[in-house]
Design brief:
Layout: E1 7-11, H1 16-27, E2 31-35, H2 39-52, E3 57-59, H3 67-77, E4 86-89, H4 104-131, E5 135-140, H5 153-173, E6 178-185, H6 209-212, H7 217-229, E7 234-237, H8 240-250, H9 252-261
Parallel strand pairs: 1-2, 1-4, 2-3, 4-5, 5-6, 6-7
Helix pairs in contact: 1-7, 3-4, 4-5, 8-9
Length: 265
């Protein structure tokens, strides 16, 4: 599909993959709606885009861990000229703590952001999208959504849950012109580890070595946009993580041996 002139709503757009996607899509001619909790950063990004061309970028704050914020954002988005052609559920938070050291409160917080936020926003926008003829829903999962990884128990579980929900959604709505793309990045060079939650819910505050040496975020964004254009059902992004996926399929004992010993940072 062509993205030029399409209206694309991106959550978690203030940094990382979301910011890179915004730049890639804006350059491709799309009209973009930027959402996140950090409005200041969104406004800075909008100013950069406005220098190129005014009127193709909108800022609508949204905290996807709060249902009232989601509802308010949807109402504001409906005031944007046109319609939402593509929703990109990118907002999320990672984890850096062992399962037994992680409070249930932190487990729930991870699910509220990573799973329930994406589900609530999608359910809120889908009736409108369907009534106007269909559209694309993109959800940011993770390689951790395909297999468990140390120090990612609730994070991995929340991403596994996304697969269950959005694969079901795809099957239920395929005849109503709703397309679903699930994106599974591995280590991408962003600040996600810095903003990860520890067991007591505090910020981890460190850049992991694996993250620092990850796939450049601009390359990640290009791969995702290409997947959207070609209506890919699932796309994997990474380096050695891709090897692990293949190993799990063909030689599970070797996969578990590697997974039990791989550095979580």
């Amino acid at each position: 599909m062509e993205i030029r002139d399409k209206v694309i709503w991106i959550t978690g757009a203030s940094s990382g993959i979301g910011e890179a996607l915004a730049s890639e899509l804006f350059t491709g001619g799309a009209r973009i709606i930027l959402s996140a909790r950090t409005v200041g950063k969104l406004e800075q990004l909008k100013e950069k885009f406005d220098v190129i061309e005014k009127g193709r970028c909108y800022v609508i704050p949204c905290d996807i861990s709060r249902i009232e914020s989601i509802e308010q954002a949807i109402n504001q988005v409906k005031q944007v000229p046109g319609r939402v052609d593509i929703l990109i559920n990118n907002a999320g938070v990672s984890q850096r703590s062992l399962a037994l050291d992680t409070s249930l409160k932190t487990d729930r917080e991870l699910f509220e952001v990573n799973y329930f936020g994406a589900v609530a926003l999608t359910k809120g926008i889908l009736p409108w999208m369907i009534a106007l003829g269909g559209g694309n829903v993109v959800v940011m999962s993770s390689m951790a959504g395909k297999f468990g990884f140390r120090m990612r128990s609730a994070y991995s579980a929340s991403k596994h849950a996304l697969h269950g929900f959005f694969e079901t959604l795809r099957a239920e709505l395929h005849d109503r012109n709703i397309r679903v793309t699930i994106v599974c990045p591995g280590r991408v060079k962003t600040d996600i580890s810095i903003h990860s939650l520890t067991g007591d819910g505090k910020m981890y505050g460190k850049m992991d070595k694996g993250q620092a040496n990850g796939v450049p975020v601009e390359k990640c964004a290009r791969i995702i946009v290409r997947a959207i254009r070609h209506n890919r059902k699932e796309v994997f992004i990474g380096s050695s993580e891709l090897f692990l996926l293949s190993v799990k399929r063909v030689c599970s004992p070797l996969f578990y041996w590697i997974a039990n010993r791989a550095s979580p940072t």
